């Protein structure tokens, strides 16, 4: 798949780390470091702009290493970039740890996964087909 990209950052284009990686790491594009205090969030610039084909989205997800080792996550996970969005990709990072975290220019801050999706057409009905589960939710199956 080809995706048009404008790179206004100081860094190379995103790349897949391994042959079978689902996502590419995005890097912070900063003029100065950003310090996130515990429970603080900030919008981090990437300097990247993309043009997705219709029927696709880009999902912005946390990096597992940052989450485990530093308590850093993407606040609206997964964030969605729609095919008609042409602005800069920004990443809302949140510090869920008890210590300050410094985001430096060029640091890998999240993953971006390109995913196909469908456009739903809603059919208004008076009732839905019954299932064994029915309306049970939030632990209703009784299984851990």
Regions with pLDDT < 50 over 5+ consecutive residues?
Answer: none
Give the number of domains. 1
CATH superfamily, please? Deoxyuridine triphosphatase (dUTPase)
**Percentage of residues in DSSP E strands:** 35-45%
Compressed to H and E, one letter per element, the order equals EEEEEEHEEEEE
CATH architecture: Distorted Sandwich
**Total number of β-strand segments?**
11
Q: Kindly state the mean pLDDT as a whole number?
A: 95
CA radius of gyration is: 19 Å
Question: What does this molecule look like?
Answer:
It is globular and about 55 Å long. Strands 2-11-6-8 form a 4-stranded antiparallel beta sheet, with no helix packed on it. Strands 4-9-7 form a 3-stranded antiparallel beta sheet. By secondary structure, the protein is mainly beta. The protein has one domain (4-116): Deoxyuridine triphosphatase (dUTPase) (Deoxyuridine 5'-Triphosphate Nucleotidohydrolase, Chain A, Distorted Sandwich). The protein has one helix at residues 64-70, and strands spanning 4-7, 23-27, 34-36, 41-45, 48-51, 56-61, 72-74, 79-81, 90-95, 101-103, 108-116. 5% of the residues lie in helices and 35% in strands. The N and C termini lie far apart (40 Å). The model has no long low-confidence stretch (mean pLDDT 95). The protein has 1 helix and 11 strands; from the N terminus they run ββββββαβββββ.
